[in-house]
Amino acid sequence: MAQETIVSFDTVSFMFENDHQILDEVDFSVRRGSKITVMGQNGAGKSTIFKLILGSYEPTSGSVNVVPGLTIAIAPQVTPPEDRDLTVKAFFEKYFKEKVYDMGKRIDDVLEIVNLHAPHDRIIKSFSGGQQARLLLASALIQNPDILLLDEPTNNLDPAGIEHLTSFIINYPETCIVISHDADFLNAFTDGVLYLDIFTRQVEQYVGNYFDVVEQIEIRKQKENSKNAKLTKGIQEKRDKANVFAHKGGKMRAVAKRMRKVAEELESDIVEVRKEDKKIRDFIIPCQEDLSGEVVKINAFTIIQDHHPVVKKAAIVVRKSHHLLLTGPNGIGKSTLLESLATGASKDAIIGENVRVGYYRQDFSTLNFEHTVYQSMLDALETAAGGPIEERLRSTAAGFLITSALINSKIGTLSEGQKGLVAFARLVLQKPGLLILDEPTNHINFRHLPVIAQALDQYTGAMILVSHVPEFVAQIRIDEVLDLTK
């Protein structure tokens, strides 16, 4: 029974209404009890695969087959807007069609699994991003599904949360399909990989853990390159000889013709080498030119202890070229401090006058989802001075893999990873004096992260950063750390 195929895609193609094709005659299968990773570049269609399995999308052609009677639950990347004003109790109740009489106990049990303790009457939007990530995971687990779909589940989680989640997945007896860019997390439990190739729109299926698959892909590339090199050499030799024989005339012309035909046959044997995901171009975030003096002053901040606010004194001054890192566990108040600073809501954390702020929010709520990418970038560009607008905008967009086809799409239709790239492109155009970055690695393809880290390391303005990814932070110059627990 453990080897039974419970999900299969049979020559599945999928295309959005704007003729943007995501999948092209895709075939793969998932067996009961397996732990599968879905990989691919931002925008390749990973979340689309999930929506096809759930039945939220219908394939353009082909068939998606799920064994009848199986239950499926998904932990999405972000809390849906309509859920943010619900209480914890109402949030979990919505996943059941009928009244559950032991709901309180069920909620406590599932919150224990995700290592979160919360009053049932607390409002969802009052939780931190990391706590909301745990609630989203718990909302899937409380349904006890046969197939568990996890979309970037480590986003916003602190190290303790990731460790807890990893342990849970390893011990989960049912089928689990995970989208993630976190290599170490994936390697702990993966026994198979579905790789979405953004160039061919195909899905490659591999057996093994994450690092096994990376090695298999590299070996395959080397073999393909070696085979092509030999074929290219043979083709050139045949053509050179054909040219020699053709000049000799007579019967030799027939020999030359046969050699050219052999060369053409060899050309048809050349395979298309598997392309790597594209990486964004190196970039810099220009600093506001007239920046000077105290950019940010933090005299006090509020943390959350046992679900209650506690005010702590501070004496933090951030000037130009000063990089401040905020640390602390999920739910302590890091994002709240950043938001109160960016919005001017705090009297004890103040930004200097005329400082242009570039604010990267983990939920991308600084982006207008109804705007096109072009409109969004144009808005950012108009806050900064000078330069040929159209040329700068399109050149910057191209560096962040925002193609001419993508630039006229609405922000709301983009994948979360693509929204992140748009947010970074806006920062480049905006020329901020202060960067406020809340979990800037969330949703971003791991190939882009060293490029982003380098840009932040070289940023000459003031910067305040929150990140739970130590490998990312280690690549950035940090001048001061504010640990909210101390």
UniProtKB/TrEMBL annotation:
Gene Ontology molecular function terms on file: ATP binding; ATP hydrolysis activity
Assigned keywords, A-Z: ATP-binding, Nucleotide-binding, Repeat
Ion transport listed as a keyword: no
Domain ABC transporter: 7-223, 296-485
Family matches, as InterPro entries: AAA+_ATPase (IPR003593), ABC_transporter-like_ATP-bd (IPR003439), ABC_transporter-like_CS (IPR017871), ABCF (IPR050611), P-loop_NTPase (IPR027417)
Protein name, entry field: ABC transporter domain-containing protein
Organism: Candidatus Abawacabacteria bacterium RBG_16_42_10
Organism lineage string: Bacteria, Candidatus Abawacaibacteriota
